[in-house]
Amino acid sequence: MKKNVLFIAMGAALLMSSCASKKELAGCREENKTLSTSLQTTKEDLAGKNARIASLEEQQKGLQQALRAAEQKYDKLQEALDKSLTNASQNNISIEKLVDQINESNQYIRHLVEVKSKSDSLNMVLTNNLTRSLSKEELKEVDVQVLKGVVYISLADNMLYKSGSYEINDRAAETLSKIAKIITDYKDYDVLIEGNTDNVPITRENIRNNWDLSCLRASSVVQALQTKYGVDPKRLTAGGRGEYNPLQSNDTELGKQRNRRTQIIITPKLDEFMELIGEAPETEK
């Protein structure tokens, strides 16, 4: 009886011990699984950090290279600056003298601007006076323009000359007298009379070609301004450009008509501008 009880007690103890071992084993397995998962996460995190460290090391190398390049550039700039300062010292450059030269140049430029403005103003007054003095009929055959500081008065050949000739028409006298008065009033201007033709060859015996015709027509106007209207001949120049300065194509009659013209070109005296150029301040080389 006692033995049976002992065996039963031992069996119960073994059964209880077996149940406890299974629970512990299950717990160990669960813990092991958790630890394995944590270990894998740690490995992955470590790998990520190692990659980040490698990237930072690579960036550091790049920054170091950039720093070395910047240091080299700085050294070169410092060397250039030192050389410039040395040259400046050797050449004994005077800042005050340079400032004086700049001020002198600025004063000269201002003077040129004033002269140019005065010339432009006079050109406008001259043009307005001439335009107001001409009748509507005359303005149909006389074109007055200011281009690049020069007054151009363009007169049609059929208004000025007899057909195919360089002799001046009687009806051109009134127009020329008005132009002559303007020229006389503005004594500080030189006057160039320039003849122009179309490309049709001239057939008159005493005129060889369009060069001759353009020059003769310009000369006729110059002599009329001198002898009839009292313009100082020292201010006058006669020239011809033949057919080689057309306004339009000579392929049409209208184009030929526009090209047959005499221009009275009124310009400021060139010697005054040459004197201004001669007064330009000298600069050291």
Mean pLDDT over the full residue set:
77
Order of helices and strands: HHHEEHHEHEHEH
Rounded to an integer in angstroms, the radius of gyration calculated over CA atoms is 52 Å
| Oligomerization state | single chain
The proportion of residues in beta strands is 5-15%
Amino- and carboxy-terminal Cα gap: 137 Å
- Tell the overall outline: elongated
Helix vs. strand class: alpha+beta
Task: Please give the count of helices.
Answer: 8
Task: Please explain how this structure is put together.
By secondary structure, this protein is of the alpha+beta class. The chain has helices at residues 2-91, 95-133, 136-139, 157-160, 173-185, 210-227, 253-259, 270-278, and strands at residues 142-147, 150-156, 189-196, 236-240, 261-268. A 5-stranded mixed β-sheet has the order 1-2-5-3-4. Strand 3, helix 6 (210-227) and strand 4 form a beta-alpha-beta unit. The longest helix is centred in the N-terminal third of the chain and has 90 residues, at 2-91. The chain is elongated and about 160 Å long.
Quick structural summary:
With 285 residues, the protein is of the alpha+beta class. Helix content is 65%, strand content 12%.
Characteristics of this structure?
285 residues; five-stranded mixed beta sheet; 8 helices; 12% strand
Structural topology:
Elements: H1 2-91, H2 95-133, H3 136-139, E1 142-147, E2 150-156, H4 157-160, H5 173-185, E3 189-196, H6 210-227, E4 236-240, H7 253-259, E5 261-268, H8 270-278
Parallel strand pairs: 3-4
Antiparallel strand pairs: 1-2, 2-5, 3-5
